[in-house]
């Protein structure tokens, strides 16, 4: 396997939640819908807000990677939902679908792009840098989801 193929393979594993941390699917598996808006122990975010934030940020990094002219949402206001819970199960479902679809699109992008080339109109960012950014950002917030589930005593044993 040549070096670039190995790097792409490792990036895919990392972006899918492999290695040292769980992925989003595992972090939310079996989570009751009625607990999505809970903020135990006065934590600042609910699981819904964390998952929706992951969706928005990942979408933004994908779009920026595809088009250096992409206009990002206003930080931090437009990266975090105001509501602590989704309005209904359809909104939750749609959020999860977009996360999956955007991640799949980003995985396709890393396979078809020069990982090291600077993204036009960026500040030195590359697809490789954005891949690490998505993986790091998602892992951070997924860990918060696991902690919230543990505090609510609804984490897998």
Q: Could you walk me through the main structural features you see in this protein, from its secondary elements to its overall organization?
A:
This protein is an all-alpha fold and 157 residues long. It has a single domain (3-151), classed as dinb family like domain (Four Helix Bundle (Hemerythrin (Met), subunit A), Up-down Bundle). Helices cover 55% and strands 0% of the residues. It has helices at 3-15, 24-28, 47-66, 89-112, 127-151. α1 runs antiparallel to α4 and α3 (47-66) runs parallel beside α4 (89-112). The protein is globular and about 45 Å long. The N and C termini lie far apart (38 Å). The model has no long low-confidence stretch (mean pLDDT 95).
The major β-sheet equals:
none
Mean pLDDT across residues: 95
CATH homology superfamily: dinb family like domain
Low-confidence stretches: none
Number of helices: 5
CATH topology: Four Helix Bundle (Hemerythrin (Met), subunit A)
Please state the overall shape, judged from the principal axes of the Cα atoms: globular
> What's the CATH class, please?
Mainly Alpha
Order of helices and strands: HHHHH
Structural class: mainly alpha
State the domain count: 1
CATH architecture term: Up-down Bundle
Cα(first) to Cα(last) distance is 38 Å
Assign a percent range to the helix content. Answer: 55-70%
Rg from C-alpha positions? 16 Å
Task: Find the count of extended strands (DSSP E, 2+ residues).
Answer: 0
Pfam families: DinB_2 (PF12867)
Protein name: DinB family protein
InterPro entries: DinB-like (IPR024775), DinB/YfiT-like (IPR034660)
Domain DinB-like: 26-145
């Amino acid at each position: 396997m040549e070096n670039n193929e190995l790097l792409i393979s490792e990036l895919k594993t990392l972006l899918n939640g492999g290695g040292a941390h769980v992925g989003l699917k595992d972090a939310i598996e079996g989570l009751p819908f009625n607990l999505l808006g809970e903020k135990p122990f006065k934590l600042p975010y609910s699981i819904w807000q964390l998952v929706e934030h992951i969706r928005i940020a990942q979408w933004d990094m994908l779009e920026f990677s595809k088009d250096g002219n992409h206009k990002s949402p206003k930080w931090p206001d437009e990266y975090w939902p105001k509501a602590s819970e989704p309005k209904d199960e359809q909104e939750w479902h749609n959020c999860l679908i977009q996360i999956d679809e955007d991640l799949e699109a980003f995985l396709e992008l890393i396979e078809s792009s020069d990982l090291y080339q600077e993204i036009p109109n960026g500040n030195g960012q590359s697809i490789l840098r954005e891949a690490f950014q998505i993986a790091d950002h998602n892992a951070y917030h997924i860990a918060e989801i696991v902690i919230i589930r543990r505090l609510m005593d609804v984490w897998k044993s």
